[in-house]
Task: inverse folding
């Protein structure tokens, strides 16, 4: 690590996303001069390796952020609410991967391929959007720019890793129990299911997070509100249905959109996305080429395929969007924001 690099802190360093953040910082050779790894008291003392060097994870305190220039947070909303202002007070720029600040009007919500310039508006905190929102807006922004955008209807097929390590374990143990003909008691999913939990193995659960008074879940409202904020389109019509599937990593989405230009062909949309930043076009139905979560694992890109024009509406199109929810949906987008801070000359 370079001696004149930045002092970077990772909060939630032992979690799934924190680990991916460290791995991504290493792969990108981010200019780190000093690295501080922080966590809750429960995980403090654990050892984590970075660039061949072993670090001990420390319990986060306000004083932990002295001298830190960039702090990447992924330890839960309550931790971000408690410590992000303390980090900012001490001169750090916080990139927060929780929902704590996403809809705060004074905090930019950023996907660099879509609204990188918003980073300049930060007051110390930049929010990383919800994983399912990120991959969708990466795919839709080039279309919006070229043809306008009036309506978005999305159904998600979300991996259990989005609910944490315990959910992954539950999927695996349930699947094994079912194959062995053994009894089991669901305890984790759906997250937000405070009345009961359901089997996830060999099943689909149409609930992610708590139901709101309007009948939508909190996850669905995140997608709706965040999409409007990122794209600066408060009037955009957005609806979402979010479903948890027995997939370990990689979110998939069926997206229906309506543009505001007549006469656009599916081929024009494909050509546009084939050169879009952060997008990989996988669309050759004749040869059964389309995105799948198993192929997206470990990759930073957003994969788009099954692009077709609606049969009844000239302005309607259908897309299939897939991405690694722990990378582009979390860690990679956070590191991208940090890279943008450097590129825009915003880190002191």
Result:
């Amino acid at each position: 690590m370079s001696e004149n690099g930045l002092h970077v802190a990772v909060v939630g360093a032992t979690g799934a996303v924190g680990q991916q953040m460290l791995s991504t910082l290493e792969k990108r050779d981010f200019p780190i001069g000093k690295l501080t790894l922080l966590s809750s008291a429960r995980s403090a003392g654990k050892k984590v390796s970075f660039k061949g060097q072993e670090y001990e994870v420390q319990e986060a305190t306000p004083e932990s952020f002295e001298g830190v220039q960039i702090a990447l947070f992924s330890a839960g909303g309550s931790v971000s609410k408690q410590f992000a202002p303390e980090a900012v007070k001490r001169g750090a720029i916080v990139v927060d991967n929780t929902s704590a600040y996403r809809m705060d009007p004074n905090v930019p919500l950023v996907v660099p391929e879509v609204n990188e310039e918003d980073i300049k508006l930060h007051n110390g905190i930049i929010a990383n959007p919800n994983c399912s929102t990120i991959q969708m807006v990466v795919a839709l922004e080039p279309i919006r720019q070229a043809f306008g955008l009036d309506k978005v209807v999305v159904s998600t097929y979300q991996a259990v890793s989005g609910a944490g390590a315990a959910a992954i374990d539950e999927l695996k143990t349930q699947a094994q129990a079912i194959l062995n003909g053994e009894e089991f008691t669901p305890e984790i999913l759906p997250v937000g299911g405070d009345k009961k939990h359901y089997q996830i193995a060999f099943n689909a659960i149409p609930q992610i997070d708590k139901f709101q008074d309007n009948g939508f879940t909190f996850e669905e409202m995140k997608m709706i509100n965040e999409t409007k904020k990122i794209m600066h389109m408060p009037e955009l019509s957005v609806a979402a249905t979010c479903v948890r599937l027995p997939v370990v990593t990689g979110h998939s989405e069926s997206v229906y959109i309506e543009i505001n230009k007549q006469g656009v062909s599916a081929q024009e949309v494909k050509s546009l996305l084939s050169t879009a930043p952060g997008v990989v076009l996988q669309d050759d139905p004749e040869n059964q080429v389309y995105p799948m979560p198993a192929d997206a694992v470990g990759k930073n890109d957003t994969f788009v395929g099954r692009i077709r024009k609606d049969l009844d509406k000239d302005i309607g199109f259908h897309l299939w969007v897939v991405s690694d929810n722990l990378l582009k949906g979390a860690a990679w987008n956070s590191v991208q924001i940090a890279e943008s801070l450097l590129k825009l000359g915003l880190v002191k």
